[in-house]
Amino acid sequence: MTDETIDPDLCAPRAAARRHGGRAARTAERAAPLAENLRPVRPGMPGGRYNPLSEEGVQRIHRAALDALEQVGFGKAPPSAVEILTGAGAVQGEDGRIRFPRALVEDMLARAARGIVLHGRDPKYDLHLEGTRVHYGTAGAAVHVVDVETGDYRDSTSRDLHEAARLAQGLDNVHFFQRPMVCRDIPDNLEMDLNTLYACCAGTTKHVGTSFTEPAHVAQALEMLHLIAGGEDRWRERPFVSNSNCFVVPPMTFAEESCRTMEACVRGGMPVLLLSAGQAGATSPASIAATIVQATAECLAGLVYVNAMVPGFPAVFGTWPFVSDLRTGAMSGGSGEQALLTAGCAQMHRFYGLPGGAAAGMADSKLPDMQAGWEQAISNTMAGLSGLNMVYEAVGMHASLLGFCPESLVLGDDMLGQVLRCVRGIEVTEDAVSVDVIRQTCLGGPGHYLGSDQTLRLMQTDYVYPAVADRMSPKEWNEKGRPGLVERATARKRRLLEEWRPVIDPATDRAVRERFRIYF
Amino acid sequence: MTDETIDPDLCAPRAAARRHGGRAARTAERAAPLAENLRPVRPGMPGGRYNPLSEEGVQRIHRAALDALEQVGFGKAPPSAVEILTGAGAVQGEDGRIRFPRALVEDMLARAARGIVLHGRDPKYDLHLEGTRVHYGTAGAAVHVVDVETGDYRDSTSRDLHEAARLAQGLDNVHFFQRPMVCRDIPDNLEMDLNTLYACCAGTTKHVGTSFTEPAHVAQALEMLHLIAGGEDRWRERPFVSNSNCFVVPPMTFAEESCRTMEACVRGGMPVLLLSAGQAGATSPASIAATIVQATAECLAGLVYVNAMVPGFPAVFGTWPFVSDLRTGAMSGGSGEQALLTAGCAQMHRFYGLPGGAAAGMADSKLPDMQAGWEQAISNTMAGLSGLNMVYEAVGMHASLLGFCPESLVLGDDMLGQVLRCVRGIEVTEDAVSVDVIRQTCLGGPGHYLGSDQTLRLMQTDYVYPAVADRMSPKEWNEKGRPGLVERATARKRRLLEEWRPVIDPATDRAVRERFRIYF
């Protein structure tokens, strides 16, 4: 029997692997916690080895975006926006639309903040948005929570949101927590906004993103944030919450209320995510390239707006175009077209040198199944490789953003670990490719690399091991009773919730609960 | 209630989508078969927008591979290899190892075939391996078939293999069929090899890959292929089967039997996949870069070997390094490290301008679950974006290649459709980014793009729609009884098998069965 009979495409590796013992020892060694600087993946690793657009394509999109701003402009600007924008040099036409001369856009691009920090309440979670540094996190406005045991899509609540924040706190590869679902247990919009904010902040010390239903709600939100931070000064020094702001209703129309919300946030020192969420084929063009044009134009308008108010104010360039299934008009966040849109936008961010964010990782599938796995992985991989600074909606989102699934969030952390390993890439140092290792193994050496110094050194620093995902052999899997993936995720979820410790001190928590009605 | 109350991160797209009717009409229009030239994705689209290695990194790996060939060389060359290789200019040292001077390697690189065709029995399935053209297909040597209903891993049989070939025939995004599993129902190795070959060829007219347990088996295999082709001349004119050949036992050792098998295939006009299947940390270095060095060196040795026999003989540069879970030594085909290895190898193929193949899409998970989805998607996406000509093992493989799952193959076709859409990329023509579409929509137009000419045109040519994957809303999904993904895959599998028609004419089939004992 030759090597080919056993495993023709694999030749001998399995046999070689079996030759060597010490498995238990190695497993134990790897289970010990790694020093922060030795961890194989971490937030903010540089991506950018994938360039979905040619340089000419980037220029073409840039020019078309400037054309759109100059020629088509924006409708429905609220009076405050008219004042701010025309004050900066934009022109309101007889049709009421605000048009942006290219010189104005270029000036504001020169003035815009670069290399911004989105703070965590704990500084170790600070996100440094510069170059092609990649961060993954949650986001969305799901109205349902997915129950993996029953398959039910039930209304999401403030308790669910708080639980998700607590989970995010314990998941290494989830770098920030923008609220992924709506608190539908709270009928009053002001109370909903305040509970959304507190559910996030009381669950995690990572950077939090949220949004507001009305401009008037910002004041009380800031009041809460000052309480949590220990004063307005401390809040303004390290604002740990950003405002996800849909200032535009695509195509090319201001969302009046959101614009005023944005103004309130800027005044309150809260960084803004300038979010343009068109849907290709519905509210933006069906052509992927043209949708990137429109999203870019829309976010450039937001950039002018913010920088006309406060030059250099921290803002994330939030080109979030989505995809329609053109047969039905329904959203398809899990599609390949979506992955391209997001990656293409990331390259535009790099072109401008601006901190950027976009959406990836959304599944159309209703459950954390194989479809969800590939849908989430394709767009997250391409987002990371293209060097997107902020990958929003990266984990937990199902049914094209209508459902949030906690088990999927937990599984997503494993998926992101792998994706981050890919973002980190291949280090081709002279040491890494040294022929010495090969020589020593082949010429008079053991003929395999299992116990070599390089192997033992790299097994911790260069290899990512999943927490839930399963690498057992079929034999071992059988012997362990064929554990299901989702059940293992549920178990990790429970462990994470048990291990979680409050992140707001009791006095502050009391003060918040005295001042505001907290539902959870 | 503002737009933000409904769906803060999405703003208005859902509402806009709902405004417009005609869903049934659009669904029907899209359901009509598309002309071949209008299909949004097809085999052989160029990838290569992702470059995992820097130019310097590529050069470094190339130089290190040449060093390894010159300094370390290959052990255990069979007499025929010694004769062929030393005849060409390689040197056998006193330690018995064959070393390759760099000038020899460079000469053979200049002589090697480029732009080769791997033929389908039906010419429409011909694979043109040149540049960064990407093709996905099956491969492997699974010893189990995964039963998705019971979770059983049972022995794979010739019938299973034939069924998989029939499925591949109907799956548009599976471009070739290398045998993914071993016929364990056949105790005799010669009969196993012949049945493996016939199970594939009798199931699909796409290009077939196979391997042989002994060199002596090649003669009868060729006899069968001549029968199928209608004569030796016709076989040699369009050889529709390639030999997946593990000529090397990593590290840097010839597999004697496989070498002689390769020689027999070359003489018989059967293209070879020169397959180096090291396992990082076990049979090749733990450093990803160094494993690419070793795989490159090993395949270069194979390249010298083949071209020393027949200059310009069609061969695929098969750097297939795998990944070990270094805690256990077990293979982890589903890891991020694997995706990097494969993509890095693809870039080396581009550097040499050689037709190349590597492995992606393997799941460690035992079942077609969410883990399998992300594992398969990450490596397949990166393989395609890096412009890998032949992506082997792309679909259906579980438990690190130990199990083949037919339902997973069917689901994988949907996954590959999305991945191929990403490989196709973003066309940024002046027409695609024209501001006219935006202008006409915003200035006096309908304010949305749902019925625009561009949308209706692109919905067929630019958007990929899955066959099994589900994009229903939660409401619709509920109303339809929450159909499960795997059940839907089983249903498509059954339909495909019912729709399949024999691809060997009855007279030839009779002739084959008279000459050889066929088990299925």
TrEMBL record, chains A, B:
Keywords: Methyltransferase, Transferase. Residues 1-31 are annotated as: Disordered. GO terms for biological process: methanogenesis; methylation. Signal peptide: none annotated. InterPro entries: MttB-like_sf, MTTB_MeTrfase. It is an enzyme of class 2 (transferase). Its EC number is 2.1.1.-. One of its GO terms (molecular function) is methyltransferase activity. The keyword Nucleotidyltransferase does not apply. The keyword Transferase applies. Belongs to the trimethylamine methyltransferase family. This is Methyltransferase. It comes from Rubellimicrobium mesophilum DSM 19309.
